[in-house]
Amino acid sequence: MSADAADSDGDVTQVEFFVNNQWVATDTTAPYQHNWSAQAGTHSFKAIATDNDNQSTTSQEVSVTVSSGSSGGCAGAPAYVAGTSYNTGDEVQNLNNKYRCDVAGWCSSSSDWAYAPGDGLYWTDAWTDLGACSTPPVVSITSPQDNQVVLAGANVAIEATAADADGSITQVEFFANDQSLAVVTQAPYRHEWSATLVGANTLKVVATDNDNNLGQDVVNITVSDQDLVVSLTSPTSGQTVGLGKAVKVAADATSLTADVQSVDFLVNGSIVGTDTTAPYEYSWTPTAVGSYSVSAAAVDTAGSRVNSAAASVTVVEQTEKTHKLIGYWHNFVNGAGCPIRLAEMSKAWDIIDIAFAENDRNSMVRFTSTSTPVTSTVLVQRLIQRSSSKIWLRYKLKVKSSCFHLVGQKAPSHSTPMPMKPHLLAA
After folding, report:
1. Are 294 and 269 in contact (CB under 8 A)?
2. How many alpha carbons fall within 13 Å on the CB side of residue 368?
3. pLDDT tens profile 149-176
């Protein structure tokens, strides 16, 4: 299980993984991942990311079906052919899965668009999935490392490991930028590649097993014609950060002929911090709103110095989200209504309508909009029509007591109906 998580105005502190809505693991550093032991059946997966302000976001939920290990294996099962006469209980293989016929007439249909096992629109009405015929091989590039920088003209050894849980590896093919380089049929799986194309390169290995299943792995390599290279990895250009909030500034630096001595971090051309050990990073706290140019500069032991490309960052002043109250709010718990305190209301709502005084002629308090009395329901409908605000409605309360708080201040008692205009009050 793996997840990507980022926070535009802070840092991700943790990512939690859930299977079937049950917590299984927490990862506090990227890459966020967890190895889960697969169990037969259909399972739901999701992740929840939390940032340094303790705000959380939940990922989209995905569903995965794990086939029983004992039900697979397609030896002796013929390949499915549309229009073939199948009997109930017959087994076939299709799309690397094994299926059992449940309804002979539908299994034998020539309409493969409808009843082809695992693929037809209505295949589950005719067939039962018995599991995968075989598992694909697992292959991994062990050298070079992902995002590694190499010097132009160098010979780079591409090394990989490959294994197949239910069979054997027949070959491993090496690619550079989708061009085949070599095919190796036995371990160790290795090939030397000449790095001639300056810039971004993609290296890929594809393993094939005895069932012709494929597995692959990919790494990205940068070929440089410069001895010293540096790139800014955080923040990203176009990012918006909060005034007074710590911003992680980080860079990757590589010296191909010497050692990296230090990395300077610059804001608007001025050095704000220096790091002498990898990973190279610095915590910068902006003190004024505006646009900033953030970059890094690397120095190696040979005396070379090189600057990274700059990232444009916008610093904004953040304000705490406030609620808009329409009319009056009960800021205490009472049996007549409003059992929620204002401080307990979720920040997700822009406008809250809970304790309005309806225009009941027996009420001790009432309100008007302009010169015509209006109920809270009508007022909220007008608000919906005029804005895109999210409005939280709980109930309307006909008020006959003077126990009200107007944004924390007690309203005076009234012995006779008193027309009052509704107000939008920030709380």
Report:
1. no
2. 9
3. 899 999 999 999 999 988 899 999 999 9
Cβ atoms of residues 368 and 379 within 8 Å: no
- The helix/strand/coil state of 127 is strand
102 φ/ψ sector (left φ>0, alpha ψ -120 to 50, else beta): alpha
Residue length of the chain: 427
Task: State residue 53's pLDDT score.
Answer: 84
In the numeric block, which tokens belong to residue 216? Answer: 């692959």
Q: In this structure, is the dihedral angle defined by the CA atoms of residues 351, 344, 377 and 422, taken in order, positive or negative?
A: negative
Q: Residue holding tokens 């923040």?
A: 235
> For residues 329 and 124, what is the distance between their CA atoms, to the nearest angstrom?
56
Strand partners, 316: 242
For strands 405-406 and 409-410, give the pairing: antiparallel
Q: How far apart are CA 403 and CA 331, in angstroms?
A: 10
Least confident span in 40-44, 153-157, 253-257, 394-398: 394-398
The answer for residues whose C-beta is within 8 angstroms of residue 183's C-beta and 6 or more apart is 171, 172, 173, 174
pTM of the model: 0.47
Percent share of the chain, pLDDT over 70: 73
Query: How far from 167 is each of 90, 136, 137, CA to CA, in Å?
Result: 25, 9, 8
Cα–Cα distance for residue pair 242/319, rounded to 1 Å: 10
- Measured in whole angstroms, the distance separating CA 123 from the mean position of its chain's CA atoms is 33
Reading the block at residue 147, the tokens are 């995002």
- Alpha-carbon distance of 46 to 24, in angstroms, equals 11
